[in-house]
Design a protein that fits this description.
This protein is mainly β and about 190 residues long. It is about 5% helix and about 45% strand. The protein is built from three helices and 18 strands. It has helices at about 45-50, 75, 145, and strands at about 1-10, 15-20, 25, 30-35, 40, 50, 55-60, 60-65, 70, 80-90, 90-100, 110, 120, 125-130, 135, 140, 150-160, 165-170. The strands form six sheets. It has a four-stranded mixed beta sheet. It has a four-stranded mixed beta sheet with strand order 12-18-17-14. Strands 5-9-8 form a three-stranded antiparallel beta sheet.
Length: about 190
């Protein structure tokens, strides 16, 4: 916070001054990563780098505790990218929170070697997938042909420290053999 004196001198020789109060609001930590099961975090200077104190936070997952202190709950915000705003001295600054899932539910699957590559799941930035068949580690892109036949464990981790494992079973392609059938039939043939 700074006080400054602004002086204006008019061409006719008149001079006027005004005292200006310059106030600022800043959040020095611009991005924070969380797992969806992390405990709520105080939105104080130690965690966010916000100055000055006494301002108000808004955004998904923000709340005031019983002592009227601001907190951020990543579980309440939900998986995704969220923008929090800090308002103090009629000025504001923002903070991005990125919430990753603690676990990946329902991704275990069985595929065929000829199935097309596909995205296992769409997650916020900071998610990494590794293992056989992963061709796009940050996009969770899995290619059954690259993985090959067998049971494959795909590891998931995030910038927040969340981690899990997905099991993908790849079965070999088998050409169907149908026998005892004519190559064509008439619609009025009775068998």
């Amino acid at each position: 916070n700074v006080n400054d004196m602004l002086t204006y001198a008019a061409p006719n020789g008149c001079v006027d001054t005004v005292l200006m109060y310059v106030r600022w609001t800043a959040v020095t930590n611009d991005t924070l990563f969380f797992c969806s099961g992390d405990a709520p975090m105080p939105l104080d200077n130690a965690h966010t780098g916000r100055t000055p104190g006494g301002g108000a936070w808004s955004g998904s997952g923000t709340y005031l505790n019983i002592d009227n202190n601001p907190f951020y709950d990543p579980g309440a915000a939900g998986v995704g990218v969220h923008l929090l705003t800090y308002l103090a001295n009629t000025c504001s600054d923002t903070l991005v929170t990125i919430v990753h899932p603690d676990v990946l539910i329902g991704l275990d699957t069985t595929l065929c070697t000829l199935d097309a590559p596909y995205q296992l799941i769409s997650l916020p930035p900071g998610s990494i997938f590794t293992g056989p068949g992963i061709t796009g580690s940050t996009m969770a892109l899995f290619d059954p042909a690259v993985a090959g036949v067998g049971v494959h464990l795909i590891d998931y981790s995030s910038a927040a420290g969340c981690s899990d494992q997905v099991t993908i079973t790849i079965d070999p392609f088998e050409q169907a053999m149908i026998g005892g059938v004519q190559s064509f039939y008439c619609s009025n043939d009775v068998q």
